[in-house]
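The authors assume throughout that readers already know how a fold can be written as discrete tokens. In essence, backbone conformation is discretised, so a fold becomes a row of integers matching the chain in length. A single example would do more here than another paragraph of explanation. For illustration, here is how one protein appears when written out as sequence plus structure tokens:

…
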Amino acid sequence: MTNTQRVNIGKQHPAAYKALLALATEVENNAAAAGLDPLLVELLRIRASQINGCAFCLRMHTRDALKKGENPDRIAVLPAWEEAGYFSETDRAALRLTEAVTRVSDGHVSDEDYNAAAAALTPEQISAVTWLATVMNAFNRVAITSRYRVAD
């Protein structure tokens, strides 16, 4: 990390940031309506933030997941979710789709990844997971670009 002072884009354009917060609330409500477990929602946020290297969002959503009762072991093995027995079929489908959306520059969301999600998730859940990943990626970019401080 550099010491270069950055513009906090959320404070520079607060209406845009408030709109992103409102979108995040709507997306979380849609995830709940689609039947996605709130713990899974936090894991999806953590996983996108791990891929993007967003320390600020990782700390925030790890704390949120723990407060909601998430098993610390599931958080610990999240980068290796495919090898761990902690995750349900729904969890795995949602994690795979979240990773594909987050890594869209690596070849878009492949038919293989989409079809794997569609085999375990309802259309409403596919949409909810995609929106969760989209919004989390936006927050990661805001925090990373603005160099949100993460310290003790």
User: Anything to note?
Assistant: The chain has a mean pLDDT of 96. The chain is about 70% helix and 0% strand. The longest helix spans residues 123-146. The domain at 10-146 is CATH 1.20.1290.10 (AhpD-like).
